């Protein structure tokens, strides 16, 4: 740890880790696209519980990878199809909720936005999360004085990146939300986001 703090050159691997996380984990996928879609359909404030669930769930995946639990889980042949089935089912349900969400300006709008539990479950069942986080986590070696220190630093950095990435995609979606007060445009954009979400899920599975 002292070496990492005192040697300026030791920070280069950390910057590489941040960049890899931004490119690989921040790229469009079921989780990030769903954040944008929910933000566009329900607005920034009402989407925060769902995004919080995604952040917590994705962080749980990160911790499982850091602890080596994913390798154990993947050795159970019956578990992967169950996680995949749950992910697909919830994505289809979420796409339906987004596609049928009324415009933000509609009087009497009382449709409940997806919540924390839904976001958490989607994150832990998202196949891309495991692949992307594992690739970033194992693809960078830090100049730390022990394996435990390196793991702790990676977990701290990637947890921060998980939070920033999801909030950035939420902000992008909320920008769309401000433009969707016209019912016709709102319906078209919601349907488009729902279709993109389904397509992204299919690509992640394939």
TrEMBL record:
TM spans (from-to): 14-42, 54-74, 80-99, 120-143, 155-176, 188-205
Keyword Cell membrane annotated: yes
A Pfam family matched in the record: LysE
Main location: membrane
Its membrane topology: Multi-pass membrane protein
Subcellular compartments: Cell membrane
Keywords: Cell membrane, Membrane, Transmembrane, Transmembrane helix
Keyword Transmembrane in annotation: yes
PANTHER family, alphabetized: ARGININE EXPORTER PROTEIN ARGO, ARGININE EXPORTER PROTEIN ARGO-RELATED
Full protein name: Threonine/homoserine/homoserine lactone efflux protein
Species whose genome carries this gene: Inquilinus ginsengisoli
């Amino acid at each position: 740890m002292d070496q990492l703090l005192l040697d300026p050159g030791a920070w280069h691997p950390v910057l590489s880790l941040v960049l890899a996380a931004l490119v690989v984990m921040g790229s469009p996928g079921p989780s990030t696209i769903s954040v944008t879609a929910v933000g566009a359909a329900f607005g920034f404030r009402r989407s925060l519980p769902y995004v919080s669930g995604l952040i917590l769930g994705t962080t749980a995946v990160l911790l499982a990878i850091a602890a080596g639990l994913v390798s154990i889980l993947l050795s159970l042949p019956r578990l992967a199809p169950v996680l995949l089935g749950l992910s697909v089912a919830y994505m289809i349900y979420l796409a339906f909720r987004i596609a049928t969400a009324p415009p933000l300006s509609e009087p009497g709008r009382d449709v409940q936005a997806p919540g924390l539990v839904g976001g958490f479950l989607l994150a832990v069942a998202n196949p891309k999360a495991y692949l992307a986080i594992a690739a970033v986590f194992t693809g960078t070696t830090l100049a730390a004085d022990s394996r435990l220190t390196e793991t702790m630093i990676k977990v701290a950095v990637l947890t921060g990146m998980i939070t920033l990435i999801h909030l950035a995609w939420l902000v992008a979606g909320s920008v769309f939300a401000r433009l969707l007060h016209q019912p016709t445009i709102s319906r078209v954009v919601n349907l488009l986001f729902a279709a993109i979400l389904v397509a992204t899920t299919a690509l992640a599975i394939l």
